[in-house]
Design brief:
globular, alpha+beta, single chain, about 20% strand, seven-stranded antiparallel sheet
């Protein structure tokens, strides 16, 4: 789609000031992930090449949050044509083979923010994964480097393993009931003790899986040898994924939503959280309001959606030297605890995510998601920012607050991402440590109950973004940003 009618109609756009261009850079939720993206940019790769390489690297570096066995979404900005494209490679509902009924799922409970939450894992929770197909399609459309060159850094990383950041170790404590079944026990709790920050996270066999992906392409996970292994593994523990499910999987191109914020244009898919609709519903005079009044206006816009789930998700944002941008968000759900034997790959638990199950879901249907990778452009169609977030129901909250920081409050990207946030659930405002007291007072006066958290917490999302305001990852998730 075109960015805007004025851009398409402009005959002689004004000369761009170099200072206003977005620098090439990468933002991610692990230093090793960002380093892989930067290496691909330095080798002459496009934003798509770097983003795909980084996503594949997360199978090693951020497996507590995501992996090849999950699904995701990509948003791509083409600077030469000033167009935005959104791709859906989220998980699909299995059952096209129709030859076996699903077995029971396995209920687990995790505690997050002091609140116990129930999930379901096991073979019957596994949806048809989309990450291999999605990475292949992003590379096919916008990549410059050979496929094997793009996959190679992830293979190297899988062989060595990575240092587990302290922020990821804290997340591991919450999600351990989902990650420890099967091969996960030896990976995340070798010797019976959960990994601590600073210790080595390694997935035996993952380098072999990525080697196969490099040599045979994404099809190896669908109609190739890993696809058959996936079917056999899932069905052995009560799942129903069959060969027809894998053969039918396709990456979808989505309609692109649009909203104005602070005089800038935000483009993204329409997600289950309603991020674009929320931005569009914000008062146009936010920049003229007092901060307490603005806090109430933002809370009112957010209140429509009250989901509060954990979810394991991560985001990669990349801008290359040509000004193209690629933002990819991926997830495993909570993780099924079903591992592909000898390949170090945990599969997704999307069918065990109760709030993602809608009445229209039938075999072959794509599931919905809260993920919302986005780009921001100015009135001339030039890139301002590329951003996405982890955090399930807090994705929308984290993105709205970060965009307000950059586009309305004129903060640099690290400051906008790191400042304290609040998240609305029904009539309760959950506020991070350090959130301004006068704004909380205004929210209280407006009828909201305030739940003051004692810390800055990964509950409040994990934004990674590159823009005119700089590059940054979210400190809540051990994130980093770097200019290449």
């Amino acid at each position: 789609m075109s960015i805007s009618a004025p851009t398409a109609a402009r005959i002689a756009p004004p000369a761009r000031e170099e200072a206003m261009r977005v620098p090439a850079g990468v933002a991610a939720n692990h230093p090793a992930t960002a380093e892989v993206g930067l290496r691909i940019l330095a080798a002459g790769g496009s934003a798509a090449d770097a983003a795909v390489a980084a996503v594949l690297a997360t199978s090693t570096s951020e497996s507590i949050l995501t992996g090849i066995g999950g699904g995701g979404f990509a948003t791509y900005y083409d600077a030469s044509t000033q167009t935005v494209t959104c791709l859906d490679f989220f998980c699909s509902v299995p059952g096209l083979d129709g030859d076996i009924p699903p077995g029971p799922m396995v209920p687990i409970e995790v505690t997050f923010g002091g609140v116990p939450q129930t999930y379901s894992i096991g073979g019957a929770s596994v949806g048809v994964p989309g990450v291999p197909a999605g990475c292949g399609e992003v590379h096919r459309r916008w990549g410059r480097l050979p496929w094997q060159r793009v996959v190679e850094p992830a293979v190297t990383l899988a062989r060595s393993g990575v240092v587990l950041p302290a922020a990821h170790a804290r997340t591991l404590v919450s999600v351990a009931p989902a990650l420890l079944p099967g091969e996960g026990a030896e990976i995340y709790a070798p010797g019976g003790h959960l990994l601590l920050g600073g210790e080595l996270l390694h997935h035996p066999g993952l380098d072999k899986a990525l080697d196969g992906l490099a040599e045979e392409g994404p099809a190896v996970f669908y109609t190739g040898r890993y696809g058959q292994l996936l079917v056999d593994t899932v069905r052995a523990v009560g799942g129903v994924i069959g060969p027809a499910d894998l053969a039918a999987y396709r990456v979808l191109e989505l309609d692109v939503g649009h909203a104005l914020l602070g005089g800038y244009h935000v483009y993204a898919r329409h997600d289950l959280n309603g991020t674009i609709d929320t931005l569009a519903a914000l008062p146009p005079d936010l920049g003229e309001m007092t901060r307490p009044a603005r806090a109430v206006a933002v809370a009112n816009a957010l209140r429509t959606y009250g989901r509060q789930r954990l979810g394991d998700t991560t985001n990669i944002s990349v801008v290359d030297r040509e000004g193209d941008a690629c933002v990819i968000t991926t997830t495993l759900g909570i993780g099924a605890g079903v591992w592909l034997p000898g390949l170090g790959i945990n599969l997704n638990s999307m069918l065990g995510e109760g709030e993602l199950i809608t009445p229209d879901l039938v075999a072959g249907r794509r599931m919905q998601s809260m993920m919302c990778p986005l780009v921001v452009v100015d009135d001339d169609g030039d890139l301002v920012a590329a951003a996405g977030s982890a955090g399930a129901s807090r994705i929308r909250t984290a993105l709205v607050d970060t965009l307000l920081g950059v586009l309305v409050d004129d903060l640099d990207m690290p400051s906008a991402i790191a400042r304290p946030r609040f998240h609305v659930v029904d009539n309760t405002v959950h506020a991070e440590l350090g959130y301004p007291a006068d704004e909380l007072d205004a929210l209280r006066d407006a009828g909201y109950e305030i739940n003051q958290w004692p810390d800055m917490n990964h509950y409040f999302g994990g934004v990674s973004a590159v823009g005119r305001a700089g590059a940054a990852g979210d400190p809540r998730r051990g994130g980093v940003g770097a200019i290449g």
